[in-house]
Amino acid sequence: QMSINYQTESMGSTWKKGDPVPYAVLCRTFEKCEATTKRLEITESLVTLFIQVIRLSPDSLLEILYMCISKVCPDYEGLELGIGESLLMKAIAKSTGRAMKALKDDYVTIGDLGTVARNSKGSQRTLFKPKPLTTSHVFKTLKDIAKLSGQSSQNKKVDKIQGLLVACQENEAKYIIRQLEGKLRIGLAEQTVLSALAQASVMYKPGFEKKSQQKKESELSTATDILKSVHNQLPNYDMIVPALLTYPIEDLLSKCSMRPGIPLKPMLAHPTKSLPEILDRFQDQKFTCEYKYDGERAQIHRTEDGKISIYSRNSEDMSVRYPDVMETITKWIKPTTQSFILDCEAVAWDIEKSCILPFQILSTRKRKDVREEEITVRVAIYGFDCLYLNGQSLLQESFEKRRQLLHDSFIETKNQFYFAEHMDSNDIADIQTFLDVSIQNNCEGLMVKSYDGEHATYEPSRRSRNWLKVKKDYLNGLGDSMDLVVMGAYYGRGKRTSVYGGFLLGCYDPDTEEFQTICKIGTGFSETMLQTLYDRLKDLVIPKPKPFYAIGDGAPAPDVWLEPQVLFEVKCADLSISPIYMAGVGQVNDAKGISLRFPRFIRLRDDKDPEQATASGQ
Ligand code: ATP
């Protein structure tokens, strides 16, 4: 099949082998995905699209994949869309000739700027049909827009967006605007897109259709497992996609293996509510306990050619945020240690007393434009895992071996680098004592890890039961705190009227892509924190709740609704079923959700994205 007729409402055209992919083709797939909530149907639409692209215009596969997940490059390169509403409205106004006031009114009624743009285009009469947009042109422009930074860039951004909008036909404006907002919200979770890509890479081959059903299913599931595993180790589509188009999928792991310089998604832990639960979980397996340091996760990389970088839990490059650490790293590496990936925690550090300071101190350290001479909060690094060493991946090694290699390859250096404190006893009394001492040392509790054998490998991006976290405050309670998105705010009373005094919080449901209300919170904030929050949140005010906010009928509406951008870590006494809040609605009760009892603010979670908030299933 060497060409495909693509038809939208009023235009018909042909996309031939080697042609650039018409953007209308991508938008038609987006429409199909948006029209259903069934994961299978969404995957099917994507598979069909990817197969067509691989057959006709494989060079466009990479940009199409990025556009499906609303990204323009790997996370660690730091280019993001997420253009603000006012800028987008300006561009819509300029490209359609409509007044800002009319656009704002429409937005308040409709709630989705993409639809506002589409409708505004629809009501516009044009003499000539613009040249059809191609995916390459749209992607390149999106990337150029993401690259523009600083105040003076605003007008240039508006011009570029306007340029795209003028050329839009049918529903294209809707998706361009949503892509610029940074989220399509049509059910295209990255995992769904990955499985579709894996399936397409097998199904496009001649002869696939003729195979038996059983063979087809097994090939598709193997391909999906391989691609997900490759992506966990090397989250970089710039490398994965060309390899996928060149080599058979079975060879992909060897062609696209992890390497220093590309941060992998860290392994995460499961909460525990009691110490006996640890023994129940591990039974006759060997495990080891470590202090759970209360700081910021850091992945330190050194490439084969000596380049050192530090990445956050979210794969952001933090090297410029830690110039002090960057300078000392070479002092604590053994001469035989060349390339490596180290998993560690950066904690606030008291140089005089050589001890850990609480997390609250770390959070006062500057996050941007850090100049070495201005640093007031020092940090020390606690290394707890080694994922790669001298050209070899250690992911499949047991933790026993990885810890041994970690200790053999680095040198504890006063006030700079230490190995995580550990204790290997399975006696409850010993664990209790170790936990108590960890807390006295300003740690959060313990991490309990599977130690040897096949359960003790490193599982990138997984919240695994082979790692348990024990937070002292949560024993016999909920087991863990929650990270919740601020959806709205209430003005304070009394002397707090100039700031927000309370906040409406929500968790995230990855299946429906909704933020679901979970509680109102007004406790645990210092006056300074309330001022900080006001300064940050006041620019995120939106005229009405987002269409993807699930709000119960009886909930007290906040004084202002907010863009979902800021996360609070919150403690609470208990959970209760609630007719007012919507968290997990349908999972515990058809009409009611879950709310938190006595929620209390602990800290801001700047190292997580809104979609990484506590999931409603959790
Ligand atoms: P979440 O809130 O999603 O659970 P989290 O960042 O709190 O995320 P957890 O999985 O709860 O992550 O706990 C693991 C975190 O604890 C790691 O991300 C790391 O930052 C920190 N940590 C401190 N000490 C250790 C250790 N010895 N081993 C592993 N992780 C540690």
TrEMBL record:
Single annotated GO MF: ATP binding
Catalytic activity reported: ATP + (deoxyribonucleotide)n-3'-hydroxyl + 5'-phospho-(deoxyribonucleotide)m = (deoxyribonucleotide)n+m + AMP + diphosphate
GO biological process terms, semicolon-separated: cell division; DNA biosynthetic process; DNA recombination; DNA repair; Okazaki fragment processing involved in mitotic DNA replication
Main location, first listed in the record: nucleus
Statement: the UniProt record of this protein carries the keyword 4Fe-4S: no
Location of the protein in the cell: Nucleus
EC numbers for this chain: 6.5.1.1
Keywords from the UniProt entry: ATP-binding, Cell cycle, Cell division, DNA damage, DNA recombination, DNA repair, DNA replication, Ligase, Nucleotide-binding, Nucleus
Domain ATP-dependent DNA ligase family profile: start-end pairs: 372-509
Transmembrane regions listed in the UniProt entry: none
Superkingdom of this protein's organism: Eukaryota
Any one cellular-component term (Gene Ontology): mitochondrion
Membership in a protein family: Belongs to the ATP-dependent DNA ligase family.
Name assigned to this protein: DNA ligase
Organism this protein belongs to: Absidia glauca (Pin mould)
Full-protein interval shown: 145 to 762 of 762
